[in-house]
Structures are given as structure tokens and as C-alpha cells.
Amino acid sequence: MKNQLYWNKIKRIPKNANFFVQYPLQAQFKGQEKKITYNYLFNKLVKRFKVIVLVHDLTDLRGDDKKSSTDDLKKADYIICHNSSMEKYLIQKGIDANKLINLEIFDYLISKENIFDHYNDEATICFAGNLNKSKFIYNLPQEVKELGINLYGVGYSRKEKGIKYWGSFGSEEISSIIKGKFGLIWDGEDYKSCVGLTGNYLKYNNPHKLSMYLVSNMPVIIWSQAAEAQFVKNNNIGILINSLEELPSVVNTLSKEDYEIMRENVKKIKEKLEKGQYLRTALDSAKI
To answer: Nearest-CA neighbor of 221 among 192, 197, 243?
Structure first.
């Protein structure tokens, strides 16, 4: 019944209108814990409207979906994908390159500023995310933990020297709370490299935590093979590493001047993220 009501609301939009949608199509009804996926509506949408898709997730790359996301995306008029790595992947899957628009990074609107001077933060590393699936944090070398690590998110119950767990916070406030000299972008079970499905996914997606760290005035440390590593390098807003084992030597040899240069560059990107400039630019590129 809810499915039909959902489609009836969509049908109120005039035919051939520009229809902007996130993919996968998901909705969450009041009183329900989990989101419901409505990808089956995609065929109806593309027949009725000019569809511009903003890719949120490619579930086949995460190993979550038997049906390839590209089966749907091929039918869209324009596809705003995360970055050049995802763009190349979609082209390899048979999607017309002329339909693809590179977002570069997700925008991040904030309601409260992060006021901390991160160079003087006690902890070197900040990591925010799902701590249940970020298994690497449970087997870090002692010399890495000694740098000081602040953790934010759900699923951590240990007490280890060098690691401080601050709890879980909502998306509206987390960016104003986090502390640490660098925001860490890493995933998977291994501290030596990002491996498995989650590690592989970093090669294609734009992690929201990258944007969150940047609007928090925080330079980042990112896996060198991550898709967004090139964005970090090109804009000089952080450090690329192959393994978390490298952290002590990398951060201990970094000068304050180098750090301040990165932080000034972070501010430039932050201004764009807060205004939604990356999505605005992508939408302007969709000529419909």
C-alpha cells in the first residue's frame, strides 16, 4: 500500500520534468528503523522524466546486491558519480561517458563551527565512523596508539592506552565536536592496507568522513590507493600513506609550517563544501 502511495505522489510531477534522485532509491517511513529500497521504481522514472542521478552507493561494488547498479544507471539521462575512478568503472560497465559528471567530493552543510585549533589537539589522529566494521582499530601497533587516537561512533567498548573513545554523535553536531590533528580515512580489518570489500570500495567512493573532517578544519591522512587520495594530493589538504605503520615517522617529521599550509588549503575547500558548490557545479553540467 505504501509503495503505491509513494508512486502516486511522484506522478503528480509533470511528465518530462527534470527529476533529480539519489541512487539507490531509498526511503524511511516514520516508526521504521531500516530504510526501504525502491530501485524497482527506476524503470518507471526514466520512462516518465528526464532523470539526473546522484550516486550515493554502488551496491555491487560493496558486494551487497546481486543485480548490478549499472543496469539501472544506463537508463538515466545524467549520472553524477563520486570521482574519476568511479567514472572509469562505470564507463567500463558500458555507460556512455557523455552522461557522466564527476562530483569530486560530497558537500557538507554545517550548523555549528568547530572551534578547535587542531595543531594543538592532544591526539594526533581522529577517526569517526562505524567502529563495529572498522576492525583495524582493534589491532593497531603500539607505536601508532602512542600518537593518541580519538574515536567517534558506535561499537567501541575497549579501554586501551592511547585510544580515547568519545561516544556517538548525530550528523548535525559531529563535525563541530571532533578533535585531532588529522582525520583518518581508512577501512577494513588490516592496519597494513585497506583490504577486502570495504577496502576495495575506498578505491571508488567518496567517503563522507572526508568532507566531515574538512569542514571541521582538519587536514586528513588517507590510504594512498583510495579514489579520493588524488583529490587530497592535488589540493594539498593532507598526507597519503600506504600503511598505518607509516604514521609515526610521517607525523613526527612534519613541520608546523607544512601543517599550517595544509590547514589553510583545508579552509578553501571548506568554504565550497559549506555552500554546496560541488553539487551546484555538477548540476550545472547537466544540460537538461
So the answer is: 243
210 Cβ contact partners less than 8 Å away, ≥ 6 residues apart:
105, 106, 183, 185, 220, 222, 228, 232
> Pairing mode, if any, of strands 220-223 and 182-185?
parallel
Contact 102, 279 (CB under 8 A): no
Given CA atoms 138, 141, 145, 149 in this order, what sign does their dihedral have? negative
The grid coordinates listed for 150 are 580519538
Which whole-number Å values give the CA distances from 142 to 38, 245, 247, in the listed order?
46, 10, 12
Q: Going by C-beta distance under 8 Å and a sequence separation of 6 or more, which residues neighbour residue 211? A: 105, 106, 107, 108, 273
- Mind listing the pLDDT tens digit of every residue in the chain (288 residues)? 556 777 788 889 999 999 999 998 876 666 566 666 777 888 889 999 999 999 998 888 876 656 678 889 999 999 999 999 999 999 999 999 999 999 999 999 998 999 998 999 999 999 999 998 899 999 999 999 999 999 999 988 888 999 999 999 988 899 999 999 999 999 989 999 998 888 889 999 999 999 999 999 999 999 999 999 999 999 999 999 999 999 999 999 999 999 999 999 999 999 999 999 999 999 999 877
- How buried is residue 45: exposed, middle or buried, by Cβ count under 10 Å (0-12/13-18/19+)? buried
Q: What nine digits make up the cell of 81?
A: 558519480
Go through 251-261 and write b for each residue having 16 or more CB atoms within 10 A of its CB, e for each that does not.
beeeeeeebee
The closest of 172, 86, 187, 81 to 134, measured between CA atoms, is: 187
Here the cell at position 185 is: 580515512
Answering whether pTM is above 0.85, one says yes
